[in-house]
């Protein structure tokens, strides 16, 4: 069996998470009398549908911001918070959400998060003003932060072996494709102006979908107590949340506010606060408590190397996708809907890679990931080069996007499987919190770093305010492609310790 997909066996005398009976259904053993597992497909559809909705909401609102600003007569700062309030609360809560799942039950916290997200979406859709919309977006992020971390744990505890790898592959495809679909869906919903509601269907569409997922989740997800009830670790919660907020808030709001002094102060405090968090966690462990991020989880070389490679890959993906979308709309004058549809080849490449990588022999998986990182780098460089003169790229552009997507698909999905391959089921929730947070932070960092580079070059002196020329925008995109490609190659380098260890 593949090293990346095999299950850890429980230690002697200890019941693993895959063996704990939950509400008449055993995690990992929900088998019908005829030997089939009908619930597994339903469980996967529910949890993937929920994470798709949560990730979609992080991007779909971007397309609606001009309409929101006109309708609600908001200021630029308020509009920023409408967009960023969701991301900030979502990213800050992911690791804590995972621990809450371990303490109170993955199903219970998943349902609470899904219900909160759905109710907040209703509030967003009916918001009479910017203040209510900002508050509802923050609550939406809280709901997502409770819901999404349970996905890894539910997959880890419900599926085994190759089935787990397939589930993680689908999850990775959802993560990547949701960002693309968000741009298309946002453009279509706003353009349709259903019954004169303008931007509101962007949020209201979550309500019937969320209610349907809630009904299915109540029936399908395994119920009952989690395999172990760990302490909440309040000191770790406070210091980790502070560390994440010091990083995420300035990165999300900095560029739009032209990087004021407070953003520099916050970013410079991230490392010291991170050190405080590490010291706090060590103190909790010495006292016999349950650290929010146990050291044994971070001692997993597969998790650390896999998470590092995933960070580089997702940062480049999110940052270049943002820059590419800006180039299509601001530089080339495409509509939001057309710009979103232009990424269909990318989505197809991601889906193809995510769903076919397991067909390769197990011994090829690690080299495959490293090669796929190089493939993604070639995609970035090719797209930047072909568009550098301000043209549309012709038929070569979809081919290069497909190449980029294949690189991502053959990277993201196997990395998720790799990172969890040697995690004990008892640590599934803690590992899921770390692994859920990494891509989210990577996307925030990627958009802030690569996006700021693109926007600063596209808006350099000599271009019209708010409407850079096609050539200036294209050259900015090419300049952004270079560090994005370098980041993809750094993802391959992060895997070198594992490649050497498995020779």
What does this structure look like?
The protein is mainly alpha-helical and 503 residues long. The chain has 20 helices and 2 strands. Strands 1-2 form a two-stranded antiparallel sheet. Strand 1 and strand 2 (25-26) form a beta hairpin. Helix 1 (38-72) packs parallel to helix 6, helix 2 packs antiparallel against helix 3 (106-126) and helix 2 packs antiparallel against helix 18 (428-458).
Concise description?
With 503 residues, the protein is mainly alpha-helical. The protein is built from 20 helices and two strands. A hairpin with a 2-residue loop joins strand 1 (21-22) and strand 2.
What's the layout of helices and strands?
Blueprint lengths: L20 E2 L2 E2 L11 H35 L3 H29 L1 H21 L3 H18 L1 H10 L2 H32 L8 H4 L1 H15 L13 H20 L7 H8 L1 H17 L8 H4 L2 H31 L4 H6 L2 H13 L8 H22 L9 H25 L7 H31 L11 H24 L2 H6 L2
Antiparallel strand pairs: 1-2
Helix pairs in contact: 1-2, 1-4, 1-5, 1-6, 1-8, 2-3, 2-4, 2-9, 2-18, 3-4, 3-5, 3-8, 5-18, 6-15, 6-17, 9-10, 9-11, 13-17, 13-18, 13-19, 15-17, 16-17, 16-19, 18-19
Strand content: under 5%
Indicate the structural class.
Answer: mainly alpha
What quaternary form is this?
Answer: single chain
Distance between the termini: 17 Å
User: How many individual helices?
Assistant: 20
Mean pLDDT value: 81
Give me the Rg, rounded.
Answer: 22 Å
Order of helical and strand elements: EEHHHHHHHHHHHHHHHHHHHH
Helix content: over 70%
What is the tally of beta strands?
2
What spatial form do the alpha-carbon principal axes imply? globular
Spatial strand order of the main sheet:
1-2
């Amino acid at each position: 069996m593949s090293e990346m997909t095999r299950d850890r066996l429980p230690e002697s005398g200890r019941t693993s998470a895959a063996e704990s009976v939950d509400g008449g259904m055993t995690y990992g053993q929900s088998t019908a009398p005829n030997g089939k597992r009908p619930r597994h497909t339903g469980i996967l559809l529910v949890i993937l549908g929920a994470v798709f909705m949560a990730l979609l909401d992080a991007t779909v609102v971007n397309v609606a911001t001009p309409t929101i600003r006109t309708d609600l007569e908001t200021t630029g700062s308020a509009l920023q918070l409408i967009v960023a309030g969701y991301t900030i609360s979502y990213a800050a809560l992911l690791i804590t959400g995972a621990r809450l799942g371990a303490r109170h039950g993955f199903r219970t916290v998943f349902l609470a998060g899904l219900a909160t997200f759905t109710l907040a979406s209703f509030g967003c859709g009916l918001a009479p003003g910017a203040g209510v919309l900002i508050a509802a977006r923050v609550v939406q992020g809280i709901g997502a932060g409770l819901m999404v971390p349970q996905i890894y744990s539910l997959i880890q505890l419900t599926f085994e072996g190759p089935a787990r790898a397939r589930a993680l592959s689908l999850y990775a495809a959802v993560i990547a494709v949701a960002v693309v679909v968000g741009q298309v869906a946002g453009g279509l919903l706003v353009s349709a102006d259903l019954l004169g509601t303008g931007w509101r269907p962007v949020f209201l569409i979550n309500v019937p979908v969320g209610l349907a997922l809630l009904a299915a989740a109540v029936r399908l997800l395994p119920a009952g107590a989690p395999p172990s009830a760990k302490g909440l670790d309040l000191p770790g919660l406070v210091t980790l949340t502070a560390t994440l907020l010091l990083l995420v808030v300035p990165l999300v709001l900095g560029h739009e506010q032209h990087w004021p002094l407070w953003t520099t102060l916050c970013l410079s405090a991230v490392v010291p606060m991170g050190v405080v968090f590490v010291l706090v966690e060590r103190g909790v462990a010495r006292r016999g408590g349950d650290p929010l991020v146990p050291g044994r989880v971070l001692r997993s070389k597969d998790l650390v190397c896999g998470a590092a490679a995933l960070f580089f890959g997702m940062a480049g993906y999110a940052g270049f996708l943002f820059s590419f979308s800006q180039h299509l709309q601001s530089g080339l004058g495409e509509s939001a809907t057309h710009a979103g549809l232009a990424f269909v080849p990318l989505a197809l490449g991601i889906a193809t890679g995510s769903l076919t990588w397991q067909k390769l022999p197990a011994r090829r998986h690690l080299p495959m990931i490293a090669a796929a990182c190089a493939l993604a780098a070639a995609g970035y460089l090719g797209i930047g080069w072909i568009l550098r003169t301000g043209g549309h790229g012709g038929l070569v552009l979809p081919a290069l996007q497909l190449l980029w997507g294949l690189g991502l698909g053959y990277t993201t999905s196997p990395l998720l499987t790799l990172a969890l391959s040697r995690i004990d089921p008892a640590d599934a929730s803690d590992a899921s919190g770390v692994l859920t947070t990494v891509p989210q932070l990577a996307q925030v960092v990627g958009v802030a770093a690569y996006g700021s580079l693109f926007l600063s070059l596209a808006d350099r002196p000599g271009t019209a305010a708010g409407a850079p020329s096609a050539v200036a925008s294209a050259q900015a995109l090419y300049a952004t492609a270079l560090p994005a490609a370098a980041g993809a190659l750094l993802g391959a380098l992060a895997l070198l310790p594992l490649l050497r260890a498995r020779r």
